[in-house]
Amino acid sequence: MLDALVIAPHPDDAELGMGGTIALMLAKRMQVGILDLTDGEPTPRGSVEIRARETAAATTALGVPWRENLGLPNRRLRATLAARAALAGVIRRVRPRWLFAPHWIDAHPDHVAATRLVAAARFWAKLTKCDLPGEPWHPQRIYHYACVHLKTVHRPAFVVDISTTWEIKRRALAAYASQFAPAPVPTVLDRVAAADAWWGSVIGTTHGEPFWAREPIGLQDFAGLV
């Protein structure tokens, strides 16, 4: 049973959006897994084999013990019934408390489709009297992370302080050499670092990652507030 299942449209999206938070949760001895929906290929400088090696290296850098790929088509990701059933089956198998998905507004069609798919699969995962494998399961919450294609930024529900784990995130992202070219400047990694530093400044820390939620967030105490 996982505390958190991070669902990414492509390998590297989980690291880009919440790599520091993943490392922080793992440091707190939480059970975290990543499910990539596609292999992310083709890309200009990558291949299926290269991307698989890079993903393995990034997973090791983060220290994530569980990561799988659902094998859906890159660039043509859709929230189809077949994809919904496949994702619901994984949710019933790993039984996460929380799901993490991209923000629902995004310039990348795969990211938007992924978030629609996560919401539908979450509902299906709890169904009884169906042909899905495993026992019914309903994750408590869906939280949304920012992808690099998110240009319209709304006020987040909360920002996680990743000051202690930002270097782990940087190393994990560096594993995706085929995806992040050293030019033009600023590079994608430059922009991610600047965004994380800005979100950190908003909450008075060095680095932060924003999250959104469509459902109310409940607190039992204020012990973890920055």
Key phrases:
alpha/beta, 17% strand, single chain, seven-stranded mixed beta sheet, 6 helices, Rossmann fold, 226 residues, 7 strands, 37% helix
3D structure, described in words:
With 226 residues, the chain is of the alpha/beta class. The protein has one domain (4-212): 3-Layer(aba) Sandwich (Rossmann fold), CATH 3.40.50.10320. Helix content is 37%, strand content 17%. It has helices at residues 13-27, 48-62, 81-94, 109-124, 166-174, 188-202; strands at residues 4-8, 32-38, 66-72, 98-102, 141-145, 158-161, 208-212. A 7-stranded mixed β-sheet has the order 3-2-1-4-5-7-6, with helices on both faces. The longest helix is centred in the middle third of the chain and has 16 residues, at 109-124. The radius of gyration is 17 Å and the shape is globular. The model has no long low-confidence stretch (mean pLDDT 96).
Fold blueprint:
Blueprint: E1 4-8, H1 13-27, E2 32-38, H2 48-62, E3 66-72, H3 81-94, E4 98-102, H4 109-124, E5 141-145, E6 158-161, H5 166-174, H6 188-202, E7 208-212
Parallel strand pairs: 1-2, 1-4, 2-3, 4-5
Antiparallel strand pairs: 5-7, 6-7
Brief summary of the model shown:
This protein has 226 residues and is of the alpha/beta class. 37% of the residues lie in helices and 17% in strands.
Number of DSSP helical runs: 6
Residue fraction in strands:
15-25%
Shape: globular
- Strand arrangement within the widest β-sheet reads 3-2-1-4-5-7-6
Distance between the termini: 28 Å
Number of strands: 7
User: For the report, how would you describe the main beta sheet?
Assistant: 7 strands, mixed
Secondary-structure-derived class: alpha/beta
Report low-confidence residues grouped into runs of 5 or more: none
Q: Let me know the average pLDDT.
A: 96
**CATH topology-level name:** Rossmann fold
What oligomeric assembly is this protein in? single chain
CATH superfamily grouping: LmbE-like
The residue fraction in helices comes out at: 25-40%
